[in-house]
Amino acid sequence: MAAMPEASSKTDSPQNGTVDAQEIAKFSAMAAEWWDPHGKFRPLHKFNPTRLAYIREHVSAHFGRAADVPQPLEGLRLLDIGCGGGLLSEPMTRLGAKVTGADAGEKNIKTASVHAQEQGLEIDYRHTTAEALAQAGEQFDVILNMEVIEHVADTQVFMKECAACLKPGGLMIVATLNRTARAFALAIVGAEYVLGWLPRGTHEWSKFITPDEMRQMMVTSGLTPGELTGVSFNPLADKWSTSHDTAVNYMQTATKQSA
Prior knowledge:
- Its EC number is 2.1.1.222, 2.1.1.64.
- It is an enzyme of class 2 (transferase).
- Belongs to the methyltransferase superfamily. UbiG/COQ3 family.
- This protein has a single domain, classed as Rossmann fold, CATH 3.40.50.
- Helices cover about 35% and strands about 25% of the residues.
- The protein has eight helices and nine strands.
- Strand 7 and strand 8 form a beta hairpin.
- The termini are far apart.
């Protein structure tokens, strides 16, 4: 029986910068539950098919690939920043990308590394930050900035450091929550306090980002904002889907001009 490839797990000891220590502690406490589809990360498991389809479609289109082939991301270097337990890093690897998963929570990286090894996947997991990657001159074709920017200490600096890691001609995909009354009602009151989908205190409404603020951050960081897409949940179908409604959740692409 062939030995499984070992998942890399580098540790760069993240400095403060954009890292919010309270946010890291919050998610580190739940690290062991990342891969439980019925646990505290159930909403992400439910959300994953929709965001995976979106990523596959937009990355394939940007790089002129056929989206319906088994590995449309083959040969692309991809950064999953704030990767958590690896819920996106693993499928991106299966789609052919050479994945680096970075997270400021050491427990998250350990969880992700062990799970990847169990699946026989080679993923470069690192306990590090966007700042450290940028300072090291790391460059990626694709950066996934998914459900993380609303948890950092300084969103503009974080976006700038992520943009610095994007190759000219590269593509970044961002997913976050809009700072609206409806987002407060559904994502915090509903999801955390009424339905119990997420632990109370997972999100802070004041850290949510409007699409206008997101666009400005991208432009200030040297990126060209692209398509804005809403993501909506249908409680009757128990399913997420893309939509024109950006009042709660949304995803947006951004590109970096070629030199």
